[in-house]
Protein 1
Amino acid sequence: MTAAAVPGTPDAAFDRSLAAARRHGEAVIVPLGALVAGLLAFALFLGIVGRSPAEFYGLVYQAAYGSTFAWENTLARTAPLLLAALCTALPARLGMIMIGGEGAIVLGGVAAGIFAMLYPALPGVLGIGGMVAVAALAGGTWIGTIGFLRHLRGVNETIASLLMAYVAIALMNHLVEGPFRDAASLNKPSTAPLSDGFRIGTIPGLDVHWGLAIGIAACVLCWVLLERTTWGFAARIVGGNVRAAQVQGLPVGRLMVGFSVLGGACAGIAGMIEVAAVHGAANASLAAGYGYTGILIAFLARHHMLAILPVATLLAGFEAASGLVQRRMDLPDATVLVLQGMVFVALLAGEALHGRLAWFRAPGRQ
Amino acid sequence: MMPAEPDLGLWGVPLAILGGAIRVSTPFLFVSLGECLTERAGRVNLGLEGTLVLGAMTGYGAACESGSPWLGVGAAALAGALFGALHGILCRLPRVNDIATGIALMLLGIGLAFFLGKPFIQPVAPDLPAIPFGWWSESPRVRAALNVNVLFLMGCGLAVALAWMFRATRVGLTIRVVGDSSDAARAMGARLHTVRLLATAAGGALAGVGGAYLSLYYPGSWNEGIASGQGLMAVALVIFARWHPLRCLGAALLFGGAGALGPALQAVGLTQGYHLFYAAPYVLTLGLLVATSSPARALAGAPGELSISR
């Protein structure tokens, strides 16, 4: 007889949990290793252009996580990134690569700004609730259209979503410079400033706006939806194998459109939070690149809804620190973009390692 | 004394669109030819948007430093080739998705260009030469519209050359076989990975040249808003052109015309809603994608190994 454990004994249970740890461990270790490799590559790049990597990472730590104030700044930027990442991660679980979250963010913000302009008399809860609704509707319609085109016509959703992001930015420029421009906004065309009732306040005891709570709640709810409901189960089957899902009689089209709408709605709410908590009016500041950082976060988190939380906090730290780093080290504002690009490339190259590290292979499986 | 300019009135709009089509289409042309070459070898490079911006920065920087616009074009092609080769090497690794890699390289290329290009926002680089085909006309606007850059003519020549290469040469045949069927390519003894790598690098080089055109001729300066999706639209344009270099030329002109619509209307005094006309090329691209895609079958003329058509 071999030494294999008899089923039902404590040894077998231990072996099973070890195998599970190995399986899940790979999903954590490989992206983490890629993240470190990307940060090292960026350190090398800084060295080549004649800047000190140690000073850079030291400043980032100080400005992003070094003090309560730094943490609050980081967490305030985490909020839109969480929702932006969902816009890529949710459709990705069905096998769609959506990269146009920026468009949904921009339109969600504009819709919220216009809503606040048109109905200034609404009382607090209704006003903010209405802004959330119109922002979710705008973002959801935008990304949902792409999911619909993908299902109906087989249009490549990656290209289509990025094109739609450009259209959305043009539409925003048209709306805030044309019909909904506030005459008082001279050098930066904006919608009218939100009245106090429409502003989102801060979470008590923490100088961070409520957007953070909305973002965390959205990630947790999406996790529940995907992992604990039959809709989520069906969606994961579609992502695994579309043909199998069709043979099973699952409503593939409705699932694809539905999850695209949900992702777009999240990104739209991100735009609304930016308007109601940060800028105070809808203007071109909405196109700040959160949608593109969200793509990287979703991929780093391997499209896992809860893994988005730590990853978004980490990348928000780099965004929060970028201003200080630029001033102190005299670096261009694209510094964070280079860093993100290098981490992204390292992450994708790291995909090649999946299934190749011997320790992670469960015993008896090839 | 200068003769008074004849008032072209609304005729100015189609004229400006024609001139604009030629001017605006050149980057589309080069990027789409590069993407066409890459995709014919069976690989998608969505990162050409990043390559375009990187090429614009490199070309402008090199032209500033050397004083020669053509050295700038060469440097842009080299930078593009290196970036294309990086994409080719990454995609060769097992389990690496070429669409996702393209997105990553798009962000990295834009980031690198903005980072390294910061010192070049102020200086003035020498422009690329243009040939005045409008010499017969009195009107300065006709002349401006028919001032055709040398790179556009080279791009036209390149489209013809590529079409001939795919149809009639051994190199072209090898690329097509590699793109259509890995198995057939292996049976033929073609070096699959090398061919794809070279095609991706060459495609990147062409996209780099397209970027150099942006910074060295039209609009003719380096800044961070220089490219706005031309690289990405070119990918869609190749699908519309059914992977044929000569149809890429026609499609590039069409897109150039759409891109010239916004500036042309603004020039005749339209001040309201011109942002929407600036969105025309994106909407046109989307419309063409929707019209030419089909859920049921692979697209006619698509290389068989292409991940976006499978």
Note: Chain B has one domain: 9-292.
Protein 2
Amino acid sequence: MANNPSLGGVATPLNEAAQEDGVPPPNGYWLVAWPLGGYSVLLEKRAVVVNAGLLIALLVACLLYLSLGSVPLAPSAVIAAVIGKGDMMTAFMVQELRLPRLVAACFTGAAFALAGVLMQTLARNRLATPGIIGIDNGATAFAVASIVGMGVSIAPPAMALAGATTAAVLTFGLAAGSGTQGYRFIVAGIGVGAVFGAITQLLLARVAIDTANAAYPWTVGSLNARPGGAVQLLGIGLALGLIAALALARSLTLLRFKDATASGLGVSVKARRLQVLMLSVILTAFAVAVAGPVGMVALIGPEIARSLSSARHVPIVASLLSGALVMLLADLAGRTLFAPIEIPVGIVTAVVGGPWLLWILMRPQRSHS
Amino acid sequence: MTSLANVVGSATRRYPPRIWMLILLTALVAVSVVSLLIGAGEVGPQRVLGLLQGSQDSDAHFVVWELRAPRTLIGIVVGIALGVAGALLQAVSRNPLAEPGLLGVSAGAAFAVALALVLGASAATLRISVAQLGALMGCVCVLSVARFRGVGNDPVRLVLAGAAFSGLLGSLSSLILLYDQRAADEIRFWVIGSLAGRRLDDLLAVLPSLLVAGIVIVVMARPLAALALGERAASGLGHRPGLIRWMAVGCVALLVGAATAIAGPIAFVGLVVPFVARAFAGPDIRRTLWFCLPIGPLIVLTADIISRVVVAPSELPLGVLTALCGAPVLIAVVRAKRLPML
């Protein structure tokens, strides 16, 4: 596929490293050879360009995020404050108030989007994001239980993980007969999500109104109430998850085909499926523990990444970056648009993501990747 | 679990429908009495029974006749409205998963009410027509999506579209409520979906529209049953499928709008009630509609009673309980080997 001569790849100048080995890299790829040990890796040119572009966009968004707010700051002052110069007040505002929130937004957005692209690949359905099949709600219900203090004093991330796992087991178990493909699986997930949503309401109804009010922005998805330690845990989980996802990248590319094709090409389908599912569940759970259910990012992020990337690979890094970008911009909009009132980021993403979801549903079906 | 419908169906065939109808009506009366007897507060069954035997207990008198009796009546009306609306919507879209709450009709009504409150309306009377208008918009939106590029051929995709739609409207409503504190205070307890603290005046205000819907449904029952045979058969029998469909949609909007205006958005009732009613009545839409009449109130009242007891002395929103018992039904329908096309 990559060497398709009709793409006009006949007269490509050969890369030096490749010339030594005598094997030219496929059209549209760079061959990056490791000087020691003889390792080499093929990088898709388009992916490199897209990721670099997304990274630049993300950095610009970060700068905007730090400058805008109830007290607008000049970008130069922000940069000075980040590296520890500038006056005390600005430094405090940037480093103590806005930077932690920025980090939380980036991490949660990246984790949601990565979990989303993994789940979509697993289910071969672009609508099967963890939020839609009920995993977000499961994590939320359990984490709310720990937050409103139902006599359970386990940290929110652990509880969220337990909830997400329960929801995933329920959804996949209940859909077992009809397979993980198709829309029935998703509707089973919607049912599971509804049950957990009701449980969250039940928990909130049992506690005092103040506790319930404090937990409310968190149940719709907000970066205001970040339990201590959850962000650090998410950062570690995200780094490990990215490494694991990149290690699984080859299998992920092949999992998009039929089971028979994938196993014929040397993927142990069942084991890889389970690994991908676990990875997705863990990432979702840790992200929910920080920001609550902002599930729409898991739909929008991979969708942007796919529209930018070629269809040859599963766009793992691009999804991660665009997820972080979407989350940052959504939270920025929520903080600044209706200035004294802060709109929870979950509502902003739902308002943007809902029409998007409908549009995907109504669009003629080209492919299910 | 796949054969939940079969199990229920074979159990119901033991007696003829007429007997079942009697049993269900008896059960409904019993549940209504229980609904008068039990509450979250201090007035327990003994005091209520004493009151009914003629003791002078002003507290109990107030609680029973001013709070619980209207609540029970409202529960009955809401149950009928939502159950019948679900059966109609499922018959029209030929989709066993079509449910006003799932498809975003209730969310449309709630959004319309929130919007009206923000734009300055405050009278509770305005709420009903606004909610019905919003329900109509929701209906039309979802059904036009359903007719769009074959989404409607796949029952499950329609549900997904509905979930997306109601999610969108739900967040728009909360956006509005965040923006406007006054509106938020007025509708905070309404938007959850509950029978608690509703007044009898609300019920009286919606009765005319419910009556209109009822008459239209009686007129429409035969054409609807013909429509179940397919569009061609229906036109061959002298009916006009397009007209029937729009009339049904209008009725659904009237019913759901009225129910939502009184009790707030309550999901899943419109799914569970026709599901159970079909098990009793078989495929005939006319008989299904009759069976919805006792089953709807039965389910809503039972859920309401449980919602008062579980977390006493406070109360649980009714929507929570209907979701807890409705979601398993949703999953059971989806898991069925062959999705029943209505």
Note: Residues 125 and 183 of chain A are 8 Å apart (CA to CA).
Protein 3
Amino acid sequence: MPSAVTLNQITKSYGSFTAVDRFSLEVERGTVFGLLGPNGAGKTTLIKILTTLMRPSSGDAFVEGFSVLAAGKEVRRLIGVVPQENNLDRYLTARENLILHGRLHGMKPADYNPRIDELLEMTGLAGRQHDFPDTFSGGMQRRLVVARALVHEPRVLFLDEPTTGLDPQSRRALWEHIRRLRHTMTVFLTTHYMDEADALCDRIMIMDHGESLADGSAVQLKDAFSRAHTYEVDFRGDAGGFREILEGLSFVRSVEQDGTTFRLTLSGEDALKPLLDSAVGGQIRKICLKEPSLEDVFIALTGEKVRE
Amino acid sequence: MLRGAFSIWGRDMLVLRRSIISELISVIAYPLTLYLAFGFGLKGYISDVGGIPYPLFIAPGLISMTAVNAAFDESSWSMWFHRRVQRTIEEYRVTPVTAYDIVIGKIFSGFSQGAIKGTVVFLVILVLTPFRIDFSHLPAYLLCLALASMTFSCLGTMCGTIIDKPENIGRVQSVVIVPLIFMAGIFFPLTSYPASILPAVRLLPTTAVFEGARDALLFGAVPPLYLANLVLTAGICFVLAVYTFNRKMAE
């Protein structure tokens, strides 16, 4: 299947800081692609390059075969963009925001009016179309931004952290809209939320420090990390001094504690017996293999340190 | 061609239409106060300037000042607001419009605001005062005003593009725009300047605006040197505004 999005050895530097380093990627048409990474990983930089808002320091990117460097206008004709922050025009009504977008895409009223009716209906905003966005809740504003990005029927939709700051109901409502777009266009999504990526994306890439760390479907990524041998262990009684003992065992890779429950990453299956034979083995009440979540995969790859 | 510019201009005019009454009240108050204070207050001391009654001498400058101030205000604040607060410039930039469309749209808007507000001040002065003109002089005056509004729109666009802190736009107005306007002979004849600095004052674009506008409105023609100054300044400012915008957006 031909690629909707291609990144070819993209590098973006700001002085001595390299935000993205020789990053390459191909996203097939019709895919919901999720780019995951902590703050500062380079996700937004990549979206800005792909939407022609920023020029790469080297390399080139292509959307539906058009270069962002040589054919920016053609690229912008084919893309819809939902930025991280709502950039609605607060002096225009919801409908006028969509009309302006249609006009900027060279659409005629006969083309944009029915499309806008359809989108307002789809996003549940038809009844509020003559109100100003300032009077909308965060979720409604976000839905309006999504509707605006779809007015000209783009072939590739870029969503940069689309549900950040929304309540769970609004998030799920927005997920529904994104699910409806599946197979009608290519969706390129960045997010911090693992459940969002798990629920929406056909393919997920985890990146950090401007580089790709893992790539595959949610199931593939979790499978790959199920070999990480993470176990949840419950101890009898007071487990106060156990942490130090566990951290001292050569076959224990990491220890996380939550009350009397410990989460241990072991070097392999053969480490189970020495664990049971160790000084704390007699105090184990329950031990079970922990199936990794996408978040475990993410943390394992990008670390636990909080980013600025 | 320029489809994007007209779409952006159309948006700005729709927003202006919604607040036209409050906009006009605020814009009329300032020049009208100056006209009444200077035109009538000083009439007893300055009966005429070069044979022109003093209220008639200052009226064209006040109308032009309203227009260019409105052009500068609209372009600078609008560009700043759309870039820094609403971030709608980013929305425009992910559509097929070009940087030229965005800058030209904002310049059109500044010019339109200047033209509308200048016209209203002109009409108010016409109704409330004995100020009268020969309407056959209007085309030359409007040409002068169009070029001046374009220059100030471009200057405003540049300020709104470069300046990130809003208070600095206010500072540019107080330190650059207002002195340039007041030095250009709205309230007094240029011959009041010492001969040594007069040639420099005559080269100011604002002198070309206000002296040119006065000559156009009172005598029906813009002196060629002033006209050349206006055309050249508007052209240079336009190129600089587009260059500045492109450069800023590439950051």
Note: The longest strand of chain A covers residues 3-14.
